[in-house]
């Protein structure tokens, strides 16, 4: 087992990781309450946003093709979605909500989206701006570090 980092940076980083894990657990709890896997839940959210092919879903969610395919099959079995040939490319399937899927999305996906909007509305303009700015900065710095890591042989 890895030894805990007791430095000030190590402690604050562990706190940050804990917050990220808590956020992920909340979403997993939502998915479980909806009788969905996190992958199925993510797919329904992206469908609600207008993303409607497996390739786009994989890109949007950084999800492996096999995971998406498995989740899509489960959502089809639950009769929440159906696959239709794409008008643009017959080899590509367009993913659509079924009537039951649309009702499910209204009841669950739209409701949790509305809850997030209420949370956002409860924050001050300064808090929202700070959260956005600091998240962008963290992602930018992490991307730089990752690029450095990937450019070195290991």
From TrEMBL:
Residues 1-140 form the HTH marR-type domain. PANTHER family: TRANSCRIPTIONAL REGULATOR, MARR, TRANSCRIPTIONAL REPRESSOR OF EMRAB OPERON. Keywords: DNA-binding, Transcription, Transcription regulation. This is MarR family transcriptional regulator. The keyword ATP-binding does not apply. It comes from the Bacteria.
């Amino acid at each position: 087992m890895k030894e805990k980092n007791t430095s000030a940076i190590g402690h604050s980083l562990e706190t940050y990781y804990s917050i990220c894990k808590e956020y992920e657990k909340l979403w997993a709890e939502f998915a479980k309450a909806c009788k969905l896997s996190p992958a199925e839940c993510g797919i329904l959210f992206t469908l609600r946003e207008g993303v409607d092919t497996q390739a786009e879903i994989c890109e949007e969610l950084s999800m492996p093709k096999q995971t998406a395919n498995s989740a899509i099959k489960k959502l089809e079995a639950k009769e929440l979605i159906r696959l239709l040939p794409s008008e643009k490319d017959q080899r590509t399937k367009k993913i659509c909500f079924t009537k039951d899927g649309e009702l499910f999305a209204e009841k669950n996906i739209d409701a949790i989206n509305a809850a997030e909007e209420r949370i956002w509305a409860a924050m001050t303009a300064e808090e929202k701006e700070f959260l956005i700015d600091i998240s962008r900065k963290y992602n930018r710095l992490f991307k730089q570090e990752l690029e450095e890591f990937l450019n070195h042989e290991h």
